[in-house]
Specification:
The chain is an alpha+beta fold and 552 residues long. The protein folds into two domains: 3-20 and 349-548, no CATH class; 31-341, Beta-galactosidase, Chain A, domain 5 (Distorted Sandwich), CATH 2.70.98.90. 36% of the residues lie in helices and 25% in strands. The protein contains 13 helices and 19 strands. It has helices at residues 3-27, 36-40, 248-253, 326-332, 346-363, 366-380, 382-397, 399-409, 413-426, 436-454, 478-493, 500-517, 522-548; strands at residues 80-84, 88-93, 98-108, 116-121, 128-136, 155-157, 164-172, 177-186, 191-200, 206-217, 233-237, 244-246, 257-261, 264-268, 272-277, 283-292, 295-302, 305-307, 312-323. A hairpin with a 7-residue loop joins strand 3 (98-108) and strand 4 (116-121). Helix 8 (399-409) packs antiparallel against helix 9 (413-426) and helix 11 (478-493) runs antiparallel to helix 12. It is elongated and about 105 Å long.
Length: 552
């Protein structure tokens, strides 16, 4: 296979991948949109269903109970409590004690709008919330997921010099049951401790279960361009399967029901996520439910736990809500960093990110870190690239003789191919010599592509001059144009195809790729430009030596 033909196949494959990604983004399976606004209103819809009881020999687990509140509790008692830390600005609704809004103070909406990015919201069309409730076998005994809690103040703030702030919400029943729901927020952390302290002052024992879940509309965008596809949906971790995707169409077609020890669940988008993490060693029932109107729940319940009369029991979980910063994710839960989805080349991508992050720690600029990492990769593959360029240079040197063979044999392709093979043998040219080294390097280049696409660290990262966001396209299209020019120069250094049709296709590729790369994040285009420039320099030197007969 000629090198040019290989490049054509790679280009075609990349274009098809982009087309498929755009199609999947626009035409993914969704539920009917009837009464969607009504479905999205958290104070009007019934909560997720109660599952069938398990067999007698197994602990019995419930899924969330009804959203209906006890008759004596009026919906107008509910209000929002604001909590501010050094990283988060959020609201807790006293009805159910749900987290109904989360703004990330360290992440702006855009480089032109420094408003904190809103990751969670209960607004119609933007639904993404986190709930944690305390359900009982006799639903009227406990607050469920929609009972109204009391709280002494409307504003909590992490004070200077303090490491944490606790938000206590209290629910009291008429039969002596008291539930204190405590949110604990920590300094420099996106991990939130969520506890239910259950005090049973009644004369009879009760059984209770903590239920936590995320609710999201699949219509909520993730802020990325339609041209770049990244996964948005559910993710489940188990000891047997560290990272499995449960997308919204999966939730629509079938309800999940699985008992898992040492797992976690999340709903992720391009750079951010919400995740529920249970205590280590605890088994819980994980479940999903499609609510209609493109709204989906993904949650877990504890097994029934007895709360004897006159005693107190505590249920606990942790909620991570924030950016996919890998150090923070790894510290929060085992393998939570896998939510930074590098795809099937994860084993290569993660070491590349570690290297990129280390270089950034030295130079302090992500743009220069990309350049230095690209240079390092070129050094590692220097000998392979050298072999490839030598092969292409020899082919280029033989171009006049190959053209003569084409003119001599005309349309007799069999005779021409035999003559070409004889020429290759006489000149000791391996026609695959230019292809195989490139094939070896392709997985590394694709892996680095995903590193640059998925890493939140590059979001709004400044480089220099007009490039003030390496995660967004070049606003003046300078880098895509440089990339197209570099592709054209590379083609001039390569042997031209003998087939006129192939020649025309090769000539159009720089223009096609320039248009495509105009929509790519500038960090990715910067990598390709630097890689092409370094390749041109190496190939130029080798080609000149081959043509002068100085290299073998």
């Amino acid at each position: 296979m000629e090198t040019q033909r290989l490049i054509q196949f790679l280009a075609l494959g990349m274009i098809l991948l982009l087309i498929w990604s755009a199609w999947e983004r626009d035409y993914r399976i969704t539920q009917p949109t009837e009464d969607r606004v009504a479905e999205e209103r958290a104070d009007e819809d019934p909560d997720v269903f109660v599952p069938d009881d398990l067999e007698a020999e197994a602990p019995e687990v419930t899924r969330p109970d009804s959203d209906e509140m006890p008759a004596e509790r009026e919906a107008d008692e509910a209000r929002s409590i604001r909590v501010t830390t050094d990283l988060l600005d959020l609201e807790i609704n006293t009805q159910g004690g749900e987290i109904s809004r989360v703004d990330l103070l360290q992440y702006a909406v855009s480089t032109r709008d420094d408003t904190p990015l809103r990751l969670m919201s209960d607004a119609p069309g933007e639904l993404f919330i986190a709930r944690a409730g305390l359900v009982t076998r006799n639903g009227s005994q406990g607050p469920g997921t929609r009972g109204v809690y009391r709280v002494e103040q409307d504003r909590f703030e992490l004070a200077e010099g303090e490491d944490s702030v606790v938000v206590p919400l209290v629910w009291e029943g008429e039969d002596g049951l008291r539930v204190t729901k405590r949110y604990t927020f920590h300094r420099d952390s996106y991990l939130i401790d969520v506890e239910h302290l259950v005090e049973n002052a009644a004369e009879e024992d009760i059984s209770a279960s903590q239920q936590v879940f995320l609710r999201r509309s699949s219509d909520v965008g993730d802020g990325t361009s339609w041209f770049i596809y990244t996964y948005t949906g559910g993710v489940l971790h188990t000891p047997d399967n560290r990272y499995s995707k449960i997308n919204f169409s999966d939730m629509a077609s079938e309800d999940l029901s699985q008992d898992i020890t040492d797992g976690w669940l999340a709903i992720i988008q391009h750079y951010f996520l919400g995740a529920w993490i249970p205590p280590e060693g605890e088994t819980r029932r994980y479940w999903t439910r499609s609510r209609g109107g493109n709204i989906y729940d993904f949650g877990m319940n504890t097994f029934w736990r007895a709360v004897p009369a006159g005693e107190t029991t505590t249920f606990s979980s942790q909620l991570f809500v924030g950016p996919k910063e890998q150090d923070r994710l790894a510290a929060a839960a085992d393998h939570l960093q896998l939510t930074v989805d590098y795809g099937w080349l994860d084993i290569i991508s993660r070491p590349l990110f570690i290297a990129l992050n280390w270089i950034h720690g030295v130079v302090g600029n992500w743009g220069w870190a990309i350049i230095l990492l690209t240079l390092s990769i070129k050094i590692v593959f220097f000998k392979l690239s050298e072999a490839s360029y030598k092969s292409m240079a020899r082919m280029r040197k033989m171009q006049p003789r190959m053209q003569q063979l084409k003119e001599r044999y005309g349309d007799d392709r069999q005779a021409m191919n035999q003559a070409l093979m004889k020429l290759y043998k006489e000149e000791k040219i391996n026609p695959l010599g230019g292809c195989l080294p490139i094939l070896v390097q392709i997985p590394v280049f694709i892996a680095l592509y995903w590193v640059l696409l998925e890493s939140v660290e590059l979001r709004h990262a400044d480089f220099m001059l007009w490039i003030n966001d390496l995660s967004s396209p070049d606003p003046f299209f300078v880098l895509p144009l440089l990339m197209g020019i570099s592709m054209f120069v590379q083609q001039r250094l390569n042997p031209a195809p003998l087939d006129p049709i192939q020649q025309k296709i090769m000539m159009t590729l720089p223009f096609v790729f320039t248009i495509f790369f105009a929509f790519f994040p500038s960090g990715l285009v910067l990598y390709w430009v630097v890689n092409n420039v370094l390749s041109i320099a190496q190939q130029y030197v080798i080609t000149r030596k081959i043509e002068r007969g100085e290299a073998k």
